[in-house]
Write a structure and sequence with these properties.
9 strands; disordered N terminus
Length: 364
């Protein structure tokens, strides 16, 4: 499954006709040097969306002596599955990218060696979902939310929706596009948000009503946001006709960042009552050849320096309390005070059943 960062370096940049953000220093570098105990290279296994500035990675090398090699392995689900297949003989030292919807799979397979990262006391308590064992370290958060096309609603003199229940109203019939919960990270997050909002006994009836109200389901975020959503730069080029889309709370700042010239106001808004909170984690892989380097990297990932570098590289929020958001986020981003959440153990127990039920109701 993908993370909140997928569009930052791929689809959205392409849709806006600009070059994607620069890759990480050492990313996919086959010549980084030998790995193993005593090595000066530490290998981070990640999904394709990991990104950090060269300056920050060089700072890590200067501070610790270790150079970071980033091994990107597809989306988060695919990357995690590869680590499960190589359990005990991992391809790297640290794994980044298991979020709260996948966390149980990683922990149940015993992928990580417990390690309490230095500075963990600065990390928000509600992000520490494995606080008793420290098998993983929280790195970032992001919110999956319905985004809306401001111009469409202004032209129609219609208030945009702001809750899951609002989306069922006749005024929003045939306006929403979402992603397949079986194949897409935001699609799954939105499904989990409806479970949290409507309850296990009510989410199926909710989706029946949403289907009757004309929700459109596509395979993934790129198609939904860049081809179907009228508020995005890509959607405008594609003459898209859906003014509501399941995306992220950080999508409006991205639209501003990549626009030329940059507008004084984001063209899209966020329905903050429709958000589901994602938390991404990193952990020291069991059997890591460079355990010391892996621990140093985990410490660095929650340092103020790295945390403040993340928002404009991966379009996610820091988890440490003393990290400041860039002005682009504070000016154009949405603040989600009460996102929907589902306990990881509950997701682990019911995820497949919920997705199957959803598929039979909405897709088949």
């Amino acid at each position: 499954m993908n993370t909140t960062t997928k569009y930052a370096a791929t689809a959205l940049a392409a849709a806006l006709g600009v070059t994607a953000l620069a890759g990480c220093g050492g990313s996919d570098d086959k010549s980084s040097g030998d790995t193993g105990a005593g090595s000066k290279t530490v290998t981070l296994v990640s999904h394709d969306s990991f990104n950090a500035s060269d300056a920050v990675l060089k700072a890590f090398t200067k501070q610790t002596g270790y150079k970071v090699k980033v091994l990107k392995s597809g989306d988060a689900g695919a990357a995690l599955n590869q680590e499960i297949l190589t359990k005990g003989s991992p391809r790297g030292d640290v794994f980044f990218g298991a979020d709260n919807t996948l966390l149980s799979r990683a922990l149940d397979n015993g992928l990580f060696t417990p390690y309490e990262a230095k500075g963990l006391d600065r990390v928000a308590a509600d992000a520490q979902l494995d606080a008793d064992k420290h098998r993983v370290t929280p790195i970032d958060t992001g919110d999956i939310c319905v985004n809306y096309d401001k111009k469409y609603f202004a032209d129609k003199k219609l208030d945009p929706p702001n809750s899951f229940d609002d989306l069922l109203k006749p005024a929003y019939k045939n306006l929403l596009v979402t992603e397949n919960a079986a194949t897409s990270s935001p699609g799954l997050g939105f499904l989990l948000g409806t479970v949290a909002s409507q309850g296990e006994a009510g989410y199926q009836d909710y989706w029946k009503k949403l289907k009757s109200n004309g929700v459109k389901v596509v395979d993934g975020w790129e198609q939904a946001y860049n081809e179907e959503f009228s508020g995005s730069a890509g959607g405008k080029k594609a003459n898209a006709d859906r003014p509501l889309v399941v995306s992220y709370a950080s999508s409006p700042p991205v639209e501003v960042l990549y626009a030329d010239p940059q507008p004084s106001e984001a063209p899209t808004g966020v329905a903050t009552g429709t958000c589901f909170r994602q938390i991404e984690f990193a952990g020291l892989l069991d059997g890591a050849k460079n355990e010391a380097g892996g621990k140093a990297l985990l410490d660095f990932l929650i340092s103020k320096q790295f945390q403040e570098d993340m928002p404009l590289n991966m379009f996610v929020n820091p988890v440490v309390k003393d990290a400041k958001l860039p002005e682009l986020f504070t000016k154009f981003g949405a603040t989600v005070d009460k996102p929907a959440t589902v306990a990881p153990e509950k997701i682990a127990k019911n995820r497949e059943q919920w997705v199957q039920s959803w598929s039979s109701l909405v897709v088949k």
